[in-house]
Amino acid sequence: MKIEETLEKLEEITSALEREDIPLDEAIALFEQGLTLAASAKTALDEARLKVSKVVEKAKGVLDLEPFDVS
Amino acid sequence: MAEEYVYTVSELNRTAREIVEGGLGGVWVKGEVSEISHASSGHMYFTLKDPSAEVSAVRFRGRSPILSAIEPGTTVLAFGKVTIYEPRGRYQFVATLVQPVGAGILQAAFERLKQKLQAEGLFDPEHKKPIPAYPTRIGVVTSPTGAALHDIVSVLSRRWPISEVLLFPSSVQGDAAAEELVAALDRAIQFSQTSQPLDLILIGRGGGAAEDLAPFNDERLARAVYASPIPVVSAVGHEIDFTMADFVADLRAATPTAAAELVTPDASDVAGQAARCVDRATRALYDRLAECELRLQAGLRRPLFRTPSRLLETAEQRLDLQVVALGRAPRRTLARPHERLARLDAVLRLSSPTRPLERGFSITYADGTSRPLRDARSVTPGTHITTRLAKGRLTSSVEEVDEE
Fold first, then answer.
1. Is-above-0.80 flag for pTM?
2. Which of A17, B1, B62, B303 has most Cβ atoms within 10 angstroms of its Cβ?
3. Strands A62-67, B26-38: parallel, antiparallel or unpaired by DSSP?
4. Distance from CA of B291 to the nearest CA of A (A)
5. Distance of alpha carbon B280 from the chain centroid
6. Do the Cβ atoms of B371 and A23 come within 8 Å?
7. Nearest Cα residue in chain A from B167
8. Torsion angles phi and psi, residue B85, rounded to 5
9. Can you tell me the ipTM of this complex?
10. Helix, strand, or coil (residue B362)
11. What is residue B324's predicted lDDT score, i.e. its pLDDT?
């Protein structure tokens, strides 16, 4: 899942929990789901390392990726 | 013979002015400047001449921001219109742009192109595409060896390393640069459409002299930027002037560093945002549990319900402890918000309300549903049920239903 979707889903769950119109057992399930999402967002942000690639035209109209070292 | 119409002097001057203004429109004039006078109003009066003629001219205050120092004797290229100053019946040239010849020719071409593209609607705000809030794939059109790429990569590594940079190399100065930039931009669009979608494209270079920035004033590049289906952000290093790419881009940044900062959120802010969600969710659940307990105490007196009530009390006490912990958390200064998130996460995990399962309670669901069973009457003998234990699940079939 993209980080944006994770954050949106987390926000959605939080708002649902704040609305109070859902049964308690569902609230607990949502809460657990929220924790999982928060943990996955944290992991994604912690472990991210910027990836840089160069896109080159191998032949006319054929694009290919090459790893690129900036330093 | 009809009587000839007799003009007043005012009418004569007004009519002459209308004819002159309407007949000539905006014109370029080249000439040598003499007799400059700066009025206290900020207007500049001067004379433009060539070897055999002269015309008085004025440049009104604030009309021409790119005016370099002009001295008597300078040959200039001026753009403006011809008019007649009615009170004096004096014919004059009203300049909106005055530039020394040389610098002026470049600048004049720039102004002409700018007016043309503006008239065609290439700068219209309605055409500008929004920049995604959390870009994950960023195309960069620039030189592989230039300062711009280095600056962009260093900002993104620090600020938003969850993204990926795809470099589309091009030269950024010299005669071939404009064409190469257009080709690289086309490749980026092609790549986005056929391989991996790009969230946005940064196009630019580090700072340089005016002539080094010329490729970014090229009409072909301006049109390619306008036509891009992907948002394009101009990242040309120059604080004062604008390039044509700046006017036509969906977003303009004054330097490549600024561009990288403008288009990305800060990862630690995002981690903080996630932590605040967990915070709110915990509070909401705590409120729910407190409310359920009240309902239980008020309405349910039967022995059967004492156990769940205690269960709730226990869960609630744990949440109480958490809330105390949460209350303290913001006051502690943690170096980074995602450290705070990690701490919250650990506290919450330890005291999850599903922990009673570990003490022998279980939750039963009718086959294929996700809602726990509360009432024996909602199933019949033969219904398949799933029981969730602290560890694992049991699937059984109902043999008998006792409604009590």
1. no
2. A17
3. unpaired
4. 10
5. 29
6. yes
7. A54
8. -80, 105
9. 0.88
10. coil
11. 54
pLDDT value of residue B368: 73
Encoding tokens for residue B389? Answer: 């234990």
* Residue B375: predicted pLDDT: 83
- Count Cβ atoms below 10 Å from residue B38 Cβ, excluding itself: 11
Q: Which residues of A touch B156 (CB under 8 A)?
A: 50
- Per-residue pLDDT at B65: 47
- Express each pLDDT in B201-222 by its tens digit: 999 999 877 778 889 999 999 9
Query: How many CB pairs (< 8 A) connect A and B?
Result: 138
Contact flag A31-B195 (C-beta cutoff 8 Å): no
Q: B225 vs chain A: nearest CA distance in angstroms? A: 19
- Which of chain B's residues have a Cβ under 8 Å away from the Cβ of A13? 277, 281
Is residue A9 packed enough to be buried (19+ CB in 10 Å), middle (13-18) or exposed (0-12)?
middle
B353 neighbourhood in chain A, CB within 8 Å: 28, 31
Residues of chain B with pLDDT below 70 are 1-2, 62-69, 102-105, 239-240, 299-359, 404
Question: Coil, helix or strand for B149?
Answer: helix
Are the Cβ atoms of B144 and A54 closer than 8 angstroms? yes
Please report the pLDDT score of residue B331 as a whole number: 39
CB spacing of A18 vs B284 below 8 angstroms: yes
Q: Taking a C-beta distance cutoff of 8 angstroms, is the pair B80, B26 a contact?
A: yes
